[in-house]
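FORM 7B: Structural annotation worksheet

SECTION A. Query
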Amino acid sequence: MTADPSSADQTRAPAANTGAPAGWMVAAAWLLTFVLAYVFWGRLLGIAIEGVDFTYVSKLPLLPPALALLTAIAMTVRWTGAPRRTGGESIGEEGQGPSATPSGRRRFLVSASASAAGIVGAGAAAFSRNTGWATVTGPSIQPEVPNKADAPRAEWGGARVERYRRLGRTDFMVSDISLGSSKLPTTREDAVRLARGAIERGVNYIDTAPDYSNAGSELALGEAMKGQRDKIFLATKFCTPKGHIPTGSSVATYMEVVEESLKRLQTDYVDLVHIHSCDSLARLMDPNVHEAFDRLREQGKARFLGVSTHTPGLEAIASQAMESDRFDVMMLAYHHGAWPNQVALIDRAAKQDVAVVAMKTLKGARHQGLLEQRAEADSYTQAAFKWVLGNPNVACLVISFREWSNLDEYLYASGKRVDESDIALLQKYDGLNAGRHCYQHCGACLPSCPEQLPIDDILRHRMYFEDYQDEKEAMRLYSMLERQADRCLGCSAPCTGACPHGIPIQHRLLSTHHLLTPA
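SECTION B. Predicted structure
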């Protein structure tokens, strides 16, 4: 009996791999991997590049992309090893014609190449979220313009502190103009000399933090205060040289970072320790940070507790701080034209004897905003300082001293009253910047955005680029935002008219994205 040829062909044909995934399934798996890598790995990569202390960052976000990557690789291996159609015949079903199974070597090369390309793609997806870092250290970035008057006036020479004010319930009398140390000179010798010069001229409130210049600020101040520590009211923050301490950290962690600050500052105690740049009620009221402070106070290592904030949630943060009755000092952003409820907030603090220290008093320090009135621009700092200190419930203001000339320019405003010419200058400044400057503390526009963009942060980063001319920092910060202004493309702009200061939000955001995104 003659055998049926078709039966013989079927016998010789290799069995189809009916368990192999379809090509579209493999593609979908890789697409999911890329998306997860962008969202999770991209965020963690950004945190690492930014310099946040990674020790305290959860590593769980590493898992979803990793699992997706392994799954995609496994699917790729199975798919590349499956029989392929030959001669236009279908695959994987018995009796549907011949099929070809790749050789072991070819299967390995194809699956290895495809998997390697996928891994590179996942890495590229994570990196693409941080593309702003590609050029921020490039030669095209200009140096920062000095934050000082072009032509210091002779009468400013040798200026010193002329007035001291009571720092709330701490009962310490502090200089009305005080030393902020986030922008001290880069060399240790110059930083120490500048800080000592400020102390010699009567400055006795010094604000620092471990993450200022990667602990360089604290180290310089430790040298500068030798022999004068008892004259100084010293404030630092709950953070490490690499970043803030996140909510939920252990009591031991909170205590350790302050103890490390004490070593750098060469002192046995700090007068004040802040919950730094606080933007959430959870971090403000974290039970562990409060227990840590209580222990530090019992041990004589910290005397008073404070909070610093300059976010749209400033009012909620400050209100909760006062409601808790846990805080002795609040360092708040405060300047001419700030959101209207702030004065009432400061008045409330005074009634509770909670000291208010003002920061961000120059509202961007846009000297170039008054270029057409250069003589007036040179006195803008003093006008701004006098306006802030015109509120008797503000204990002092903190301003970053960068170079020796700042001592003359800034301290010349100490003890002086704000007058009509100062108000006129500040109003002229606001007029020149109408529709451009974001009063980032009000947050009035935020609910109008369907994309939930951080409008205030985006425009603040533009301010750093244009007004501080700190392009590197502006681009770095913008690149770290999870939601950027390119989402405004095609939007119907419900934010129109939402800014109480007249900023055309959508137009401003799109131009900011173009400005801060590398070509």
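SECTION C. Observations
The radius of gyration is 30 Å. Confidence is low (pLDDT under 50) at residues 5-17, 86-98, 132-147, 367-374.

SECTION D. Sign-off
Analyst initials: ____
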